[in-house]
Write a structure and sequence with these properties.
The complex is a heterodimer of chains A (211) and B (183). Chain A is of the alpha+beta class. Chain A has eight helices and five strands, in the order H-E-E-H-H-H-H-E-E-H-H-E-H. About 4% of the residues of chain B have low confidence. Classes of the chains: A alpha+beta (211), B alpha+beta (183).
Chain lengths: 211, 183
């Protein structure tokens, strides 16, 4: 009876651990699946062909599921997302490849035939954003994050909305003056995590619902 | 007799060649309930350009790296021990007289550049599309890693932020892990 009890306890434990491991793997897979473009930059357009939001997902690896190594990887993934966003901006200003590829993307997804207007909108918004690249990058907010402890990688998703750039510009102006920096931190920082990073997890920001 | 000895030579040569070609990384993981977590990477040069080995062992509190590079040239042997993310001990024995900065094997080359600043690296990161592999992934992290590696067909570029090679162990480990995942 005792033997049976121990066996079942061991069995339960191994099932629980397997479930945890599978869950950590599933969280990142789900996050990638939910994102329209996976790792890279993705633009969401309204029915009228206006840019509603831009998403950038970055990835980084870590050697072991250890808090300090995950922290480094998180920084690397965030910088990777920013890099992709900034590269996309440069290409958008050049007007060629990105606008065309996005146009193709819209042609396949948008059924309202707004393709030409959309290309203009993307190029225009790209130029506006690039003229204030630093402000735009500051205006990026973290929307989602996941850690896969089995495959040892982290994904970070950042987002940008036209309103955020104005807010970032305003904060930047205030910072160059004498205003306190509280607004900036409220825009960028996320509430502190209660999870234990040595296990896989996914942490979605409340901001993501507004995007 | 001649055919036997030539067969033996081919056999030995192919065995040695195979062992070099299959270097990559070996990963040993201890992650059982009731035991302390431990992960060990043992990576050796996959490309037959220069001989190196990086062993990295990470436990909950400890992070240990043992790095050897080019026993026939630099003859570098480094070890670094960190405890709770603080470097407790870092040592390098460097007994080689020759310190080659480039290695060539067939059409492949490995070029080492010492004392490289961030600004000198930026041009490579701006032409990212020319390279198949980068570590660190973004140039902003170079100050932290102290090394950078980038690869394009037939060419490996290895950079160190100072005039030594001890920091390059991290980059070579990451590159070998990348090759291991890719195979």
């Amino acid at each position: 009876m005792i033997g049976k009890f121990w066996l079942s306890k061991k069995g339960l434990c191994s099932i629980f651990c397997t479930l945890l491991a599978t869950q950590s793997y599933a969280e990142c897979s789900r996050m990638e699946a939910e994102s329209a473009a996976g790792v890279g930059v993705h633009v969401r357009l309204s029915d009228q062909g206006k840019v509603e939001a831009i998403f950038a997902m970055g990835e980084a690896n870590f050697l072991a599921p250890k808090r300090s190594l995950i922290k480094k990887a998180r920084t690397a993934a965030t910088l990777d997302a920013k890099r992709q966003f900034s590269e996309w901006l440069e290409e958008a200003v050049a007007g060629g490849a990105v606008a065309t590829s996005l146009l193709e993307q819209v042609e396949t997804t948008d059924q309202n035939g707004m393709t030409s207007g959309t290309a203009e909108e993307i190029t225009q918004i790209g130029e506006t954003m690039a003229s204030a690249t630093a402000n735009v990058l500051n205006g990026l907010v973290k929307l989602d994050e996941c850690v896969d402890t089995d495959e040892k990688y982290i994904l970070v998703e950042l987002g940008w909305k036209p309103e955020l750039s104005a807010a970032a510009r305003q904060v930047s102006g205030e910072l160059s003056g004498t205003a306190p920096s509280s607004v900036k931190s409220s825009n960028v920082e996320q509430p502190k995590s209660k999870i234990i990073p040595s296990e896989g997890y996914r942490k979605k920001s409340n901001l993501k619902n507004d995007f | 007799m001649t055919s036997k000895s030539s067969f033996l030579f081919v056999f030995v040569w192919s065995f040695l060649h195979a062992s070099v070609g299959n270097a990559y990384c070996r990963e040993h993981l201890i992650d059982k309930i009731g035991e302390n977590f431990q992960i060990t990477y043992n990576c050796e040069n996959t490309e037959n350009l220069v001989e190196y080995q990086v062993i990295r062992q990470i436990t909950e509190n400890m992070d240990f790296e043992f790095f050897t590079f080019d026993p026939r040239g630099w003859n570098l042997m480094c070890s670094k021990l960190s405890y709770n993310d603080e470097t407790v001990d870092s040592q390098c024995i460097h007994t080689g007289i020759k310190r080659p900065l480039s290695y060539k094997s067939g059409l492949k080359t490995l070029a080492i550049t010492l004392n490289t600043g961030v600004s000198a690296l930026e041009k490579y990161y701006l032409n990212r599309e020319n390279y198949s592999y980068f570590y660190p992934n973004v140039v902003e992290l170079y100050a932290d890693t102290g090394c950078a590696i980038m690869v394009r067909s037939g060419e490996i570029l290895l950079f160190s932020s100072n005039n030594a090679l001890e920091a390059t162990g991290e980059c070579l480990l990451q590159y070998e892990l990348y090759l291991t995942q890719k195979k």
